[in-house]
User: Fold these one by one.
Assistant:
Number 1:
Amino acid sequence: MLPIDPTKKLSFNRCIMYGDLVIVYERYDSMKPVKVSENGVLQNRFGVFKHSNWIGKQFGSKVFSSKGGFIYLLAPTPELWTLVLSHRTQILYIADISFVVMYLEIVPGCVVLESGTGSGSLTTSLARAVAPNGHVYTFDFHEQRAASAREDFERTGLSSLVTVGVRDIQGEGFPDEFLGRADSVFLDLPQPWLAIPSVAKMLQQDGVLCAFSPCIEQVQKSCETLKTYFTDIRTFEVLLHTYEVREGNLGSWQDSDGCLGTLKSCKKRHRSTNGLENSSPQTILARRNSEARGHTGYLTFARLKCDM
C-alpha cells in the first residue's frame, strides 16, 4: 500500500509496477483495490482495462478502455484503504481516525499499542503517523482475524511498521516487554476498564490513552477506573455531516425536511435564443446529505498521572 524505499521513507513518487496495490476509482461511490499482475484484466461497465497498460504510469493517472471509458489509478493511502478494505468487524472511519491520531499526539518515531486490531482501518493510519522510525504493536484475541490483518498489512506494504499479535488484552493485559515503552495506547474492547491497569504500566510518563466505546455505559465505567491512574479525562463524540452544494432554482430542490439552505443568492439572468433576457433566478443551494454517517462511538482520552 505505502511503497517503502530502503530508508523506510513512505513515498508515492514513482511509477506503478507489477505487484503494486492500486485503488481503482470508477466514481466517488465506487472504488476497489486491485493488485497489478502481468496478465491481469479489469472489466467493468466502462470497458476492459489491461494491467499491462498501467505499468510505468504515475499514481493518479487516468487510463482509457478500448470503448472510451476511463478510470483513475490512485495511490492506496490510508484514507482510501479505509473505504475499500474488507470489513471483518465494525471499523473506524476518517472523522474518528483523524481525531484519534491528533489527540493521541502521535508523531514519527512513536511506539503505539493497539487492541483490538479488527479490520485494521485505524492501524493503517497509525502506521503512517509513526513512520518511518516508529512502530505499531496491535493485538486481537481472535486468531483468524489477526492472521487476516497480518496478510493485509503484508499486502499493503506496512509489515515493517506493524506487528500483529494474538492476545486477550482484557484478561492478560499487554506483554511485559512494553513496560514503560509506549507513547500512546488505543483500546477498542467490549470492557476497556479491564485493560486500563495494564495500560498505565505500558505508557511512558505523560503518555496518552484513547478508548473507543459505542455505548455511553462503557464510557462511564471506564472513566471510573481511569481516575485511579489518569488525569485530563475527556470524552468526545465526533459527528460528521456532508453537504451537497449546487446552483439551481428556488423550489426545484428540497431536502428531506422540505427545506432549502441558501448559501448565496446569485439571481443570474440568462439570455434566451431570441436575445431576450430570462429573469429566472439562479441561486447557490446547499442541503445536508441524507447518507451522512451519524454516531459511531465515543472516544475517551486520558493522560497518565506523572506520579505513576
Note: Residues 4 and 10 are 5 Å apart (CA to CA).
Number 2:
Amino acid sequence: MFSPLPSAKAMVPFVSVDNMMRLVHHLGIETVLAELTDTIEADFRRWESFDKTPRVASHSRDGVIELMPTSDGRVYSFKYVNGHPKNTAEGLQTVTAFGLLAEVSTGYPALLTEMTILTALRTAATSAMAARHLAPKGARTMAMIGNGAQAEFQALAMKAVCGIDTIRLYDIDPRATEKAARNLDGSGLKILSCRSAQEAIEGAEIVTTCTADKQFATILTDNMVGAGVHINAIGGDCPGKTELHRDILQRSDVFVEYPPQTRIEGEIQQMAPDFPVTELWKVVTGEAQGRRDGRQITLFDSVGFAIEDFSALRYVRARLPGTDFYQNLDMIADPDDPRDLFGMLLRAKENEETI
C-alpha cells in the first residue's frame, strides 16, 4: 500500500517575507545583525573549504539578474537576485531576492526563503565585519552616502558591531535622507542630515557609499578623503558601475571578497588587472595585515559574494526550530518507490476521482 502523503523530506521549510520580518523582530534587529556578522566571519575563517565562482549574470539595459551559488561540501546554496535601478521610479524595489539551501548528500532542498530583507541584513553585517577588522579603533562616526533601502541596515550594523554612535546622512534626493533619519529615530544613534557628500564625511572615521545609479559615477573625489578613514564602497556591484574616483584607490589599501568577481564588478574595475588587493578572508584569519596605523586609508570594495548568502541562509535555518516563522511546502515529488514517479502521478488522479 502506497501512502498518498508526501514524506518529510519532500516538505521544504519556507520563510515568507512576513515570517522573515517576524523572525527579525522576535530576535531583535541589532541582535540579528550582530549574530549574522559573527556567522559570516566564521565562514570567512573557513573560506578555503567553499566552492567559489563569480556569479552568473544576465545583463540588460534595464538591470541585471544573477545567480549566486556555493557549497562547503556538505550544504549547497544559491541566491537569485536582481538589480534594477529604474524600479524605484515605478514604485518597485531596486533589489529583490530569494535563496535556497540543499543537502549535498541527497540534493534535496532544506530551506527556501525570501532574501530581499535577508540580503539587506547580510550586506550590512558584511560591512560591519570588514569595519571591525579595518576601521580605526574607537571609530564612533559614520558617513552614509546614499540613503536608499540599505542605509538603515548599515547604520544599525555599525552600531551593533562596531560601536558607532553618530550617523551623518547624505543623498542627492533629500526625501531619501528624511526617510532614513525618520526610520533611525529612536535607535540610539545621533542622526545628522547633511547637504552634500563633503559635509557628510567631515569628522567621519567610516565612510559608506551605497548609491543605485547603474553608471560610472564619482560620489567621492580624492580631495574629500583624509588620512586614516575606512571606506565601505558597496554601491559598485556590476560592470560599468562605480562610485569612487580612481585616485582614492591609488591612495588606499584595498580589500575585496573574491578578486575574479570584484575586478569585473567593483571599484577596482577602473584599475589595471594587476592592481594590488588583499582578500578579506586573509585578514580575518590573520594571514594578511589589515589596518597598520592611524593614517592608512582602508577600502573594502564590496560587491557581495555567495558565501555571505550561504552564511545568512544557514543562520536563518539555525534560528527556525522551535518557532512558527515558516511553513512547510510540498515541493519535491518523492514517491514511495523512487522508480515509480509515473505511478505516483496515476494514483493522484485515482485519489482525486474517489473524493
Note: The first helix runs from residue 17 to 27.
Number 3:
Amino acid sequence: MAVFTPLTETQVADFLARFDAGSLVSLEGVPAGTENSTFFVTTDQRALVLTLFEQGEFGELPFFVDLLDYLEEHRLPVPGPLHDREGVALHRLAGKPALLFPRLPGRHPRDPNLAQCRALGDALGHMHKVSKHFPGHRPNPRDINWLLPMHHKVLVYLSPQDQTLMKDEVEIYQEVFGGSLELPQGTLHGDLFRDNTLYEGDRLGGIIDFYNGCTGDLLFDLAIVINDWATEPDGRLNAERHDAILTAYQARRPLTDAERQVWPMMLRMTALRYWLSRLLVVYVDPPAHDLTPHDPEQFRTILRARLEHGALPLPEVNA
C-alpha cells in the first residue's frame, strides 16, 4: 500500500473546511505510487485527489502549483490544484506538504491504440508550445549534468560489457549535449509514461504526476514518451505508434533541424537515463518504503535496441 502517512476522516474533513469543495463523504487510500501518499476524497459536491508529499524539498512545490495553474489556463488536460478561500493551494497536513486536485476521468492505457497515441502527441505538442513561455524555472534533474557523476555509482554492479556500454554512451552524450548545442527550451513533464495519463476510450482525460517537471530541452520530454509509448517488449520501435505520436506532435510544434539531427542520440540518452535511475534505486538508494523497484533491464533492452536498430525516420511536416 503506497500510503506512507495515514490520515483520519477527521483530519481530512478539517482540511476540506478551508476550501469550497463540499463536505467529506468518503476517504480511500490509493495503492499506486512510489513516492507520495495519495487519497481519493469524495465530497457531497465532487471527486478529489489529495496528495501528501513524502520526499523532496518544500521550496520546489510552488513551481509545480504554478505550472499546473498555467497549463490549465491554456486548456491542457491537467489537474489544476484547488486553491482555498484565501487563494492558497499548498498547505500542510499531518506534517507533510499537501495539495488537493480534481479527480480526472479515465484509466491508464496499457496497450495504447493509434487514436490514443495521436491524442497524446497532440497534447504534448500543445503543452510544449505554450510551456516555452511559462515564467517558472527548475533545472532538469536528470540531464547530462546528472548522468556524468551518477553513472559511476552503479558501474561496480554491472558486467564488464555493461560497464563499457554505459561509460561509452555517457562520453558520447557529453560530446553531443554538453557543449554549445542549442535546442528549443521549455517546461517538461519529465516522466510522461502511459501510467501518467488517463483515457476515456480514445479521449485523453488527463496528464498527471508532474513532480518530475522541470525546464530543459523539449526534445528530452518527447524522447521519453517515444521510448515508452512506441516501444515493443523487445525494445524495438513500433512504427505506427511512433508516427502517430510524432505527426500529431509536430502539427502543434514542428521539430527544428537541430532537433532532427540529434533525435537518435536523445532516444539513447533518455533510455540510459531510466536504466541508470532504476539501477540506483536497486543498488545504491533503495526506496524508504517496502516497494518493489522498477526493473532496470527494461531500459537496458531499449538502449541496446536503439544502438542496434537506430531511430525510425521522423515524419515530415506538411508545409
Note: Residues 9-102 form a domain with the Phosphorylase Kinase; domain 1 fold (CATH 3.30.200.20).
Number 4:
Amino acid sequence: MPSTVHLVDGSLYVFRAWHSMPDEFFDAEGQSINAVHGFTRFLCELLERAQPDHIAVAFDASLTSSFRNAIYPAYKANRELPPPSLERQFVQCRAVTEALGICMMIDHAYEADDLIGSTAWNLRMQGWRSIIVSADKDFGQLLGEHDEQWDYARNLRWGPTGVHEKLGVHPHQVADYLALCGDAIDNIPGVPGVGAKTAAALLTHFGSLDSLLERIDEVAFLRLRGAASCASKLREHAENARTYRRLTRIALDAPGVSTAEALQRQPADPAVLEALCEQLRFGAFTRSRLRALLR
C-alpha cells in the first residue's frame, strides 16, 4: 500500500461547527468563537485518531472569488455570505491549523476542492495515496485505485467502488453526472428533467457527457422513462451542460502542494500555541490536548 496523505476539507468542518456548537464561547475580546471551538475539537480528534505524518487542511477564501464565478455568475449565489463574526472565526481556525504545524492551503481563485484535487493528483504521480476528509460528493471524482474518502462525522470511508455504490457512476464520470442532474448546494441547475437516476443511466450507456451529446439522437430510443422528452431537453440544454461541467469538474492545475515533504507536520512553536490559547480563552482540557499534539 502506498504512503498516505490526509487532505482535509477545512471549510466544511468550520461550517458544521458554526451550526452545531452553542454560542457560548468567547475570545479575549468578547467575540463569539463557537465555530473555532468545534473545529479545534474536530482537528484534535482527527490528529489523535489518525496520527497522520503528512496532512493539509484546505480552506475556501470566499464564496464569490472562485474562477467559477466568472464562468457562471449564479454559482453558489443561493448561499448567504458568512457574517463578519464567522469570517473572523475562519481566520482563527486557520491560525489553529498552522499552530499545530499543519500545512494550510487557501487561494482566492481556487476553492478548497481544487487545492485538494491538485495536491492529490500531484502526489499520486509520486506514488502517494490520499485520504480526503470530507462528506462532499464532489470529491468522488478524485478517487484513484488506492484513495479513500472519509466522512468523519459519520465515520464512513469508501474508495472508487463506493462512489459507484452511492451515485451509480464511476469516479471519472462524477463531474459529468453533476453537470447533468445539477447540484443544488452550488446552485448548478443541471438539465431540466434529468434527475440523479437518469443521469447515472445515461452515463452508464454513453460513458461520458461528450459521447452522450454527440449521440443525442439515440436517447429517444433508450428504455428510459420519458426518453423522448429527455432527448429534447438535452438538445436544448447541451451547451449549458458543457458549461456546468466546467463548474463541477475539480481543477487539477490549481496551486496545490507539489511534494509530500511540504505536507509533513512541522515542529510547532509552543509559545505561539500558548498565546493563541490565551487569545481564544481555551479551557484547560483543550489546551492540554493541543499541547499533547505538538511536534
Note: The chain is about 45% helix and 10% strand.
